[in-house]
């Protein structure tokens, strides 16, 4: 697999084309994430009931990496507890920013983003939705402005 | 636009490449152009972000540090005298480059951003609530934010000249905004994200008829065209050296002598004074009044070498070659299915911004990079332009005189690969 194919794996291209959980949740707060470097924006809607993420959706405009990351994120955290979702955030953050082995069994669908760490300018694309989700889970409704 | 008006504002085209223009020899003057990226020959099409540097510039900087490094002005030793003479010689060089009447009208500073901030800060001291400042919809953030900050501080009002779907401004719209409350006009000469060459001469004449001074942001004009500040009659003109084949972190502000004499200083410090006591300070004459602290001497010397180099290549050759590239790139890219060019002004510099169906510009940028092609993707520090055209971002290929039609072909082929992958 070439370096570029490693970044743009088929799974990412698929989620870019047909994003899962794309849309709005009218009864959940909307939390926005914005990357001023590239103009990407994402809005995450999370419905938490008794500490469990009952439903999650997103909308926004961004590149394939950012859209696929948001899409895969929603499929991973739906049905998880808030604590589990926060742990996933930490693991995702390590995956795209730190060197080290990637264990697909532990990381599941997230593993397809391992290639991002070789593209410092694209880390922000992959992590925007996750930062936004983290704020939503902490009941911070201010827009996330991240360039990481 | 009439041809004479187009010529006044620096239209590309209409000139012929002289027999002295040898593209291979020109490319050989730029060491970086022979390198590879991801195993492919570098195709550098990000010139509007920063231009590459010819060997003459690199050597001039190198020579300064190896032979003459010392602080300028007031030094009595040999090195300081030599460095001072190179620095002040560069000021004369810059004055000749834009046909300023006097070299004291050239203030060296970091670039256009600092130049706009200087003018904004100094002019701003006499701006009051209700005063109006006019800019256009196609300004770079560096010619929006400083004025917005001034308006927030003073209660002045920012008025914006609209642009049409071809990314052109209408002089009549400017005239409609120009009124008794207008205190200043600040307009980009060539748009960095759209390539549009603005009718700056008409704007300056109309503003002057009302007694309003005008700053022209020349960051994207000077790399492409000959500028004559006396013919334009602008009050201020800005240069970003790194976009004009010079080093990073250096540029200049041209200001008419009477303005530089009249305006209060920007930064306080060494070199900008005649006499200092705790009671009062007497400021130095222009341009030194605006050059506090030790300046970027090597940058200034490198910039002078860049201006020498551009004039050696010849403005007519540069304009003719870039016009050919623009026409060819516009044809080749327009032929790609799903590609839409943003910025289709009749009078344009060699910049082609585009969007490609549903493929985001960041994905395009990463893909073409793997073919060795460097383009810019994103909002290009012109978010209002993106809002105007309803796109989150564009991909931008910007050409310099060292680019070739083969490089346009490489970009077009790389875009076809992007389409294959994304099924756009």
Give the CATH architecture of the largest domain in chain B: 3-Layer(aba) Sandwich
Q: Helix segment count of chain B?
A: 15
Work out the strand percent of chain A. Answer: 15-25%
Question: How many structural units, i.e. domains of chain B?
Answer: 2
**Which residue ranges of chain A are poorly predicted, with pLDDT under 50 across at least 5 consecutive positions?**
none
Strand order of the largest sheet of chain B: 4-10-9-8-7-5-6
CATH architecture of chain A: Alpha-Beta Complex
Shape of chain B: globular
Largest sheet of chain B: 7 strands, mixed
The value of Rg of chain B in angstroms is 22 Å
One letter per element, helices H and strands E, the order of chain A comes to HHEEEHHHHE
Tell me the name of the CATH homologous superfamily of the largest domain in chain B. Type I PLP-dependent aspartate aminotransferase-like (Major domain)
What name does the CATH topology of chain A carry?
Sufe protein. Chain: A
In terms of structural class, how would the helical and strand content of chain A be classed?
Answer: alpha+beta
What is the arithmetic mean of pLDDT of chain A? 88
In the CATH scheme, the class of chain A would be: Alpha Beta
Task: Give the distance, in angstroms, between the N- and C-terminal Cα atoms of chain A.
Answer: 27 Å
Q: Note the main sheet of chain A.
A: 4 strands, mixed
Taken as a percent bin, the fraction of beta residues of chain B is 15-25%
CATH topology of the largest domain in chain B: Aspartate Aminotransferase, domain 2
Provide a quick synopsis of the model.
The complex is a heterodimer of chains A (148) and B (424). Chain A has 148 residues and is α+β, with helices and mostly antiparallel strands. Helix content of chain A is 42%, strand content 19%.
């Amino acid at each position: 697999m070439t370096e570029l194919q490693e970044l743009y794996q088929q799974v990412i291209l698929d989620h870019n084309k047909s994003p899962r959980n794309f849309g709005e949740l009218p009864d959940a707060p909307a939390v926005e994430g914005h990357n001023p470097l590239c103009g990407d924006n994402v809005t995450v809607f999370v419905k938490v009931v008794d500490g469990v993420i009952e439903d999650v959706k997103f909308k926004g405009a961004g590149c394939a990496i950012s859209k696929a990351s948001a899409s895969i994120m929603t499929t991973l955290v739906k049905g998880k507890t808030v604590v589990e979702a926060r742990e996933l955030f930490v693991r995702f953050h390590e995956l795209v920013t730190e060197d080290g082995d990637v264990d697909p069994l532990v990381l599941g669908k997230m593993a397809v983003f391992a290639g991002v760490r070789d593209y410092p300018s694209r880390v922000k694309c992959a992590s925007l939705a996750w930062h936004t989700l983290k704020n939503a889970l902490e009941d911070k409704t201010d827009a996330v402005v991240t360039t990481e | 636009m009439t041809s004479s008006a187009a010529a006044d504002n620096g239209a590309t085209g209409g000139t012929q490449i002289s027999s002295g223009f040898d593209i291979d020899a020109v490319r050989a003057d730029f060491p970086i152009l022979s390198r590879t990226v991801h195993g492919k020959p570098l195709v550098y099409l990000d010139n509007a972000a920063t231009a590459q540097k010819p060997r003459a510039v690199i050597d001039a900087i190198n020579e300064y540090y190896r032979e003459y490094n010392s602080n300028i002005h007031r030094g009595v030793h040999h090195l300081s005298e030599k460095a001072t003479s190179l620095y002040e010689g560069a000021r004369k060089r810059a004055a000749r480059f834009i046909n300023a009447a006097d070299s004291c009208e050239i203030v060296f500073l970091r670039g256009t951003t600092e130049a706009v901030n200087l003018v904004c800060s100094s002019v701003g001291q006499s701006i009051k609530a209700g005063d109006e400042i006019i800019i256009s919809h196609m300004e770079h953030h560096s010619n929006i934010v400083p004025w917005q900050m001034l308006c927030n501080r003073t209660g002045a009002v920012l008025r914006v000249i609209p642009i049409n779907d071809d990314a052109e401004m209408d002089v009549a719209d400017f005239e409609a905004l120009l009124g008794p409350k207008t205190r200043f006009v600040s307009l980009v000469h060539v748009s960095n994200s759209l390539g549009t060459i603005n009718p700056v001469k008409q704007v300056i004449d109309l503003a002057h008829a009302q007694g309003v001074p005008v700053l022209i942001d020349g960051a994207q004009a000077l790399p492409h065209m000959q500028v004559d500040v006396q013919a334009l009659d602008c009050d201020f003109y800005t240069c970003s050296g790194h976009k004009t084949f010079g080093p990073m972190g250096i540029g200049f502000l041209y200001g008419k002598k009477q303005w530089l004499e009249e305006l209060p200083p920007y930064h306080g410090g060494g070199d900008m004074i005649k006499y200092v006591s705790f009671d009062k300070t007497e400021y130095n004459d222009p341009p030194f009044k605006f050059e506090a602290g030790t300046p970027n001497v090597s940058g200034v010397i490198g910039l002078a070498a860049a201006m020498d180099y551009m004039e050696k290549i010849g403005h007519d050759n540069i304009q003719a070659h870039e016009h050919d590239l623009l026409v060819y790139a516009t044809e080749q890219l327009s032929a790609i299915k799903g590609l839409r060019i943003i910025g289709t002004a009749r009078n344009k510099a060699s910049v082609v911004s585009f969007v490609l169906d549903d493929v985001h510009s960041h994905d395009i940028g990463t893909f073409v990079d793997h073919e060795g092609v460097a383009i810019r993707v994103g909002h290009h520090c012109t978010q209002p332009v993106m809002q105007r055209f309803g796109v989150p971002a564009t991909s931008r290929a910007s050409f310099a005189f060292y680019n070739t039609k083969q490089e346009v072909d490489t970009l077009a082929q790389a875009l076809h690969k992007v389409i294959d992958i994304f099924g756009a």
